Amino acid sequence: MEIDKPYAGMLQRAGLGSVSSVLHCEGDCLAAWSRTTDVIRCDPAGEATSVYVKRYHYPRWRHRFKGMFRGTLFRKSRARSEYHALRLMRRLGIQAVRPVAYGERRILLFVRSCFLITEAVPDAMPLSAFIQKFGEHRGTPRSVEIRREILVSLARQVRHMHDAGFVHRDLFWRNVLIRCLPGDRFEFYFLDASVGRWIRMRRRRDESIVADIAAMGAAAPNFCSKADQLRFLLEYLGVKTLDPENRAWLRRVQTQSDLLRPSELERLRRGRVFAQADAEPVSAE
Questions:
Q1: What is the spatial order of strands in the sheet that 185-190 belongs to?
Q2: What is 141-206 written as a DSSP string?
Q3: Is 175:191 a contact under the CB 8 Å cutoff?
Q4: Maximum CA pair distance of the chain?
Q5: Ranges in the chain, pLDDT < 50
Q6: Can you tell me the distance from the alpha carbon of 215 to that of 259, in angstroms, rounded to the nearest whole number?
Q7: What is the pTM of this model?
Q8: How far apart are CA 52 and CA 194, in angstroms?
């Protein structure tokens, strides 16, 4: 287990100071669950911050062998990969959630379980949940202004990430947190970056950038107008109109988005069960 030093005392006091204690912790709130993963929120008494614990389990040998072929046998587990990816993002000036610790339990070098602990962002919620709730207020004058501010701010932050050379490679709405600021402004935090990479070569990076924007647009047609989607793309590209080169690039993005859309919409539907209600969306009435 590796712990970011400023958080060592807090995790010990919260009963999260060892691999065994983290894997057996029930937490204060179940945020997500599947057969092999779960996410819990822990609110340690007397502490100024809460943390999220994301755990990956490989209960059967076929799961462990599958992980082996992805490089976990002699290299990083998924939790360790995300821990270092988030640290790298923050060093590059990208607004990502702060990783607190990661840990692994192995059997004969095979990963049996692993986990990542991140600091909770106060008053933030997944962008996917926010957009679905905010959609209830679409059409009012204030909602139009707020939606534009969200799209412009998000486009700038994604572009900043790509300009820094980092590609997320899993950039769906559910992997972005949104937090409301005074004056109808918004900020965003990236998470779930276990497959993210800093890529120096522009040509190699371009393909992953297309995939990132395609992931962002996978669910967009169901919640945003075409004008909203175009506004995001124009702000991201830093142009006022699309030239032929931009349009060719956009066709590549749309092709990938169309392939991702059915599975992503299904994930969003299932994810509503665990949607966080800690931060209420801005009223657009």
A1: 124-126, 176-181, 185-190
A2: HHHHHHHHHHHHHHHHHHHHHHHTTEE-S---GGGEEEEEETTTEEEEEE---TT-EE---HHHHH
A3: yes
A4: 61
A5: 69, 71, 73, 276-285
A6: 10
A7: 0.86
A8: 16
